[in-house]
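Lab notebook, page 48
Experiment: co-folding of the full assembly
Goal: obtain a model of how the components sit together before planning crosslinking
Operator: M.T.
Materials (sequences as entered):
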Amino acid sequence: MCTYVTNTAEVSGSGYAHGEWIDVRTVVVSYDHPQHAPLEHALCIDFRTGGDPASHVAVELDAASARRLAAAIVATLDSDEAKTLG
Amino acid sequence: MSADAMRAQTTTIAGRNGDEIEAYLAEPVDRGTVPGVVVIHHMPGYDRATKEICRTFAVYGYTALCPNLFHRFAPGGKSTDAAAAARAAGGVSDDQMLGDVQGAIDHLRAMPDANGKVGVIGYCSGGRQTYIVACTLDVDAAVDCYGGRVVVDSPEQLTPQHPVAPIDLTPKLHCPLLGLFGGRDRNPSPEHVAKMETELSDHGKTFEFHTYPDAGHGFFSVDFPMYDQDAARDGWKQIWTFFGSHLAV
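Observation: model returned without errors.
Model output:
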C-alpha cells in the first residue's frame, strides 16, 4: 500500500551532499515506498534547502533502524552535557 | 529489421496547459500500425524499472509513453530529486495528472503509426490515477495495478491534491477495466477490491479483476522485495490478453 504518511518540520543546520555542504531548512519525514532501499516501506528522511530540488540529503531506513536512530538522537540530546549546552 | 526492433528514448510532450514535460517513449519499429499505451509510474517516480516496463510494451507491439508526472518539481533534473520534491510538496494533484495524461494520449494518437487505440496502465499510486483517468478521459482500455485509495476509508484521505474518492467516479467509467491485485495488500485490501467489484457491477461496467492470494502490494516491482514472480508472470499474461482484445483494430 501507499501510505502517503508525511510530516514536515522546519529545521536549521547543514547537510553534506554531492561533495559539498548545503543549508538545511526543512526536513520531510515519510513512511512510504522508498526510491532505493530494498524495502516495501521505509522511513524516508529528506533534509532540504528549498529552492533547488537537487539540494537535499535523503536517507531511507527500515522502521527498526529508524526507531534506533530516533532513540539515539533523543538520548544524545538528553545527555547532561548536551542539555547544559543546548 | 528485426521483428522486435524498437526505439526508446526520453522525449518531451505537451502536458497540462501546454507545459512541456519529460516523457519516456518506447515504440516498435516497422510493425505497421500499433496501439498506444500510457504508462503511469509508481510513487517512487519515473525510474529505471518504469522505463523497462515501457520497453516491454514495445517488444509486444505497443507504443508506450510514460509522462514524468513529477517533471515540474525538478525540470531537467534527476528523477530521484523530482520524486523527493514531489513528496515534500504533498504530491501531484489529480487535475495536473489528468492534464499530463491527456497530453500523453494526444501524443500517442498523433503518431504516424498509431492505430487510434490508446490504453492506460498504472502501478501503485499510478493504479489509483489510472482509475481516475478511465473515468474521466477518452481511453479504450485501462489496467489498474494495485492502486490504493480508490476506496477512501476516511475523510482525512481526501486532500487538496486528491479531493475526490476515485470509486465515486465509477458511473463515468467508459472503457473496459482490468484490475490486478495482491491478496496480502492492505490498500487496496481484498475488502477494498470487493467494494470496487460491487460498485462496478452495480453500474453495469465491463471489468475483470484478478487477485493473487500470496502476493502483496507492488508485485511487478522487480527492484523491490515485493516482487512476486508467479503474480507478475500471470499479470503480464492478463495484460497481453486484455490489451490484445481491446486495443487491436
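Interpretation: Residues 5-85 of chain A form one domain.
Next step: discuss with group before ordering constructs.
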